[in-house]
Amino acid sequence: MGVSKYIATAIGLVLMAWTWDLAHSERDVALEQRREIEMSLEDMIGQYIRAKRPNVTDVIFQQLFSEDIASNEPGTKEMLVRFRYLINEPTATSAATAPGTAESGTPPKATAATSTEMTEQMFEGTVRLRSTDGLNWEWVDEKIRSPLIRYRNGTEIRSSETPSGGDSAK
Question: Whole-number mean pLDDT of the chain?
């Protein structure tokens, strides 16, 4: 039992030294410059969303970080920026129909009432950037997907018919 304590302590010290070295190693891009790139990318994405979807009320970045990646071209640096953000957007929907049945020959009537629903949509993706001098970065490509759409206020639709679908007066 006594030897395992020393082995565990030695493994822990080696791991601590390795992570310290990893955290303080020289990076291709300085942390301040990396943060500036991330913030300008966040601003660009937010402006793009507001230009394309003017009804968006909120753009909330949940995750935004960058990492250095190996470049195929000599003398260039590449960076991959990963992000996840939510947008909240109201959608106006009209009420489905007013009462009416096909059996009675009365067609359903459209109503003018509208309700506003809030949708929350999540987007996640990556942007690959390339630079030859480390100061000017070129947007190479991006991958964006939307795995989630959540409706904040649902619309309830009720039938005016009886549960069996028949006329209750018969």
Answer: 77
